[in-house]
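Bench notes, bay 3.
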Amino acid sequence: MPLSEFARRHRVALLAVLATVCVTVFLGAGTLGVTFLSDDVALITWGREAIGPGFWRPWLGNQLTGEAGSPPYYRPLTLVSHGVDAALWGWTPAGHRLTSLILHFLDTLLVFALVRVVLPDRPKMLAFWTAVLFAIHPVHETALWWISCRMELLCAFFYLTCVILFGVFMKERKGWFLFLSTLAGVLALTAKEMAYTLPCICFALALLKAGPRPPAARFRTAFLCALPMAIVAAGFMALRLTRMPVGNTLFALDVTPRYVLAVIRLTARYLAFPFHLSLRQLLRELPMAILAGFAALAGLLWPVRRRLFSLPVALGTAWTLATAILLVRTMSPWTLYLPSAGFCLALAAFAPMTLRPREWTAAVLTLLVLAAYTLQLETRKDAWRETDRVTRAFIEEFKAVTAEEGARKPVIVCAPGAVADIPALLHYFEMRMRLETGLRDLDPTALTFVMLPADHNRQAITFKKTSDTGWLVKPGDPETTFLFPHRGYEFQQYPSGTLVKEPWGTLRLRGANVPGESAALEVQLTPSVAKEWKNREWYGFNGKKLIAFPAITMP
């Protein structure tokens, strides 16, 4: 086939590839060099072990390294991915983040292919707009820029591959397509447990592709075709139940109707309005402008209102609900990476499918959405760069303390856990500090963490000695909040007046611990711990650097 003929026949697919390349370059600009954050170092360390002499251990379902406090996830393929990255890039964060961006590029192309397989009779531009919207949707921010979220990208890659191959199997009816589809499903399950929903997706797709048959025959065909994936998913569930604590499985669901409604509300909010803005605050401050904006939006939607009841919207909604059902146990913005593909399909139904003048409202609406998404991501890059600056500054200060003062058991009264909503040193603090200093005998202790605002001029923190064994930590800006260890791995924000008991003492909040409200924290050691720790070095992070507390103040 001549090159010109190939380009003509596949011009929409080539246009999708070009657009995805441009979006990927945009996403990487200014963020590749951000340092390792929060869980990154731990996952890379475990990944190096996963491709080392004990490579078989994660595949048997051990709790990662088996260390106390390790998240007991069965995600061996994700660990292998981190291990391969470590072999390729070492401890260079840009390389690890580049791998994530490449995976996102491939996932976007798979979304394009998925729409073409599921809806082959629809205009190719539907797949194009779905892919573009998926590539640049702001809800993917953390999944792309936080290396620890590799499992979302990797699971989505094999999940989408599984569904695409299954769709091809339903058309061609060749057994090896079903085998490859099931194999991709296995790999998706080893990347993240979110792939447990694959049997439902395959069953629904089989019903859609079963053809004009009696309902009973269609259900029987769909059941038999989805059965291999269902058996695989059941096997992985059994493995997880036997190898992992029951408290970390779906059988430990402890949710209420109110909690479920909150998850649904947040999911809809993150997908439909993925901006770091408060609609309530905007309505209070600019009511007329917001109402005018809604009126303009309604005017643009009115000519395409009938598309709300189209098949792409229905399928996109079904995909989002089916893939997000497991998020009822725990939901964060980055976990919506795979479900967002369905939302983007539904949104793409309102995009222009031709260049005809009657599509001008759809074109304006789509361009406005893309412009808003681009602006949101560009703005958020500043927050990630500020997180990088704060993290690097703290680490340099900590390294200087250990090198110049010989501190081996430093106690940090408060450390930068996050900047805005971006994790900095929130998890595996001790492991990170040992790696940065190269001191294996280092035994640091962080009593609490602060979540700082993204503006470096508003990050001041002051410390006041309240007793021989107590301090008062006072942020200089009401946007700063406190975070506390909770159940080992997780962290929790507590309301005003809460008394948090720790093995070494207590923490008591003064004021509301929410952004925009002034707060302070009382830190109090128990007499026995104070006596045990009296020879340790004490420091506090004041928003810019570590300041030393005189050892003489300790009993």
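Next record in the batch:
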Amino acid sequence: MRNVEPTQRQTNMDSPPRGRKLGIGFGICLAVVCLCLAGTGTVAAQSADIIVASDGTEDYTSIQNAINNANTGDRIRISQGTYSESIDIRKNVDIVAPDGATISPSSNAVSAVALAGGTESHLVNLTIEGESSIGLDARSSTGDWTAENIHITGFRFGVTTLESTGDWVISDSEIKNSNARGIATERSSGNWTIKSSSIRNVSGIGIDAHDVDAGLIKDTVIEDITQSYEYDGQGINIDDTSGNWVIENVTVRDTGYDGIDAGDTNATHDPVIRNTKVIGAAEEGIDIAGSESDVLITGSTVRDTGPGEYNNAIRIEDAQGDWIIQDTVIQNISGEGIDGYTQPKSSHATIRNLTINGTQNVGINMYESDGDWTIADSVIENTSNHGINAKRSNGELDIDNLTVRNSDSDGIDASNTTGNATVHASEFRNMGDKSIDLIDSEGKWKIHESILIGASEGAVEVQNANFRTNASYNYWGTSDGPSGDFDGSGGSVVGDVTVTPYYVDSSLTTLSSEQDTGGKDTPTDPTQRALQITGKSDPSKLTQNDVTAVITRFNRGQSVNNISINQDDVTATITLFGRN
């Protein structure tokens, strides 16, 4: 018999139990019913709820006393009311409050509700409020517990699951007014879930998941997070992780630092940020700098960053994985749209169906990046600097169906680059400087099937480049082709560039009558030109016959290997041969 507190619910034991007068007939009927139910094999015995009521009308007045006297698998039902106590759960019992109940411990209590050891309790429809350290304390817990429709107000930590190992779940819950963390789950190793919940008005971090193994944050709102210390203020901090984490359909709004900080992640699976909105982050919207994983950001929106020192929409610099950003909108950014500075050679960046509208710096920054980049089906507009800054980058660049318009500087600054690049089916309109700047570039560039008009300082400039740029099959703004080093009146093209044939209309349907074989990756460096003319790859292999052939063809006005030989080419060939 369960040991219970004496309450008003107890009846006079001298009275005969109700139902005894039913006699033998009832007993037979009951036996028949039991046999029928047993035969189905579908009905298990169910013990009655243990009921707690603060007014003394049920089994217990104290939740903790009910827990202490419960058996594993029991359900404790809490009646409406406020319970001024802390509770400690170390067994598998469920605690539910169908009509709501409030747990409000004393201010000197460590926690309001503690889940210890391997408990797999279910907490449902509770309000936990107070000013002590922790609202729901599951530090180092090992069980797969759940908290559903829990409202936690106050406390230094709303929930902490520090170093827990269970696959716990928090759902349909609200955590607010914490002054350190909404949820702190650092160094947890279970596959936990936070879903359909809200975390608001936290002075610190909304969800701190530093150094976790795995986790899912889904259908959740995190907002009004202020910065209490130098590196606090994140909506979600999920940096230095090593497992499989997903952020899906989450809104992070008005944070004092980063919206989502996922830097230095080394997840064994590919981390995903899907269908997520980050609005009003004072610093970066999403920070994935230093990641070694193949991160995917898809279907998301980042807008209204700033006014912090680092206020880019997405910071992914020095990321070593093959990351992807797709189907995403970036808008009204105080810094850069995407900061991909110094991508290592091992990485491959892919950007698809991206819209960047309104940045106070560059749209996409790949400055000094060694990794390869693919940009497709995207729009960059209204930037206060370059649309794309690829200066001094060394990787391959593949651009297809890109629109860049209304940038205060270059559409693409690719000066001093060394990698090869292709720009196809793209549009550049209304640049404050050049559409594409290839000054001092060393790679092979091809620009085709594109529109380049309205740039204040010219469409394409290729001064001092190592190879001739093939920019045929483009529209330069007029029917007579580009100006600059060419005879048309369209956008200016300067340097060693092939522009014919070009389109005479913006619909790219009619080509000019002038034809050209197109740029054949012709170098401009004298030594490289001499080697290409002679067909040699090593200057030490040049012979007297090579020198004679170059001089003869120069005198005849002939071209060799798609190079029209000039006096400088003859001089360079003679000089190289003389060094032998």
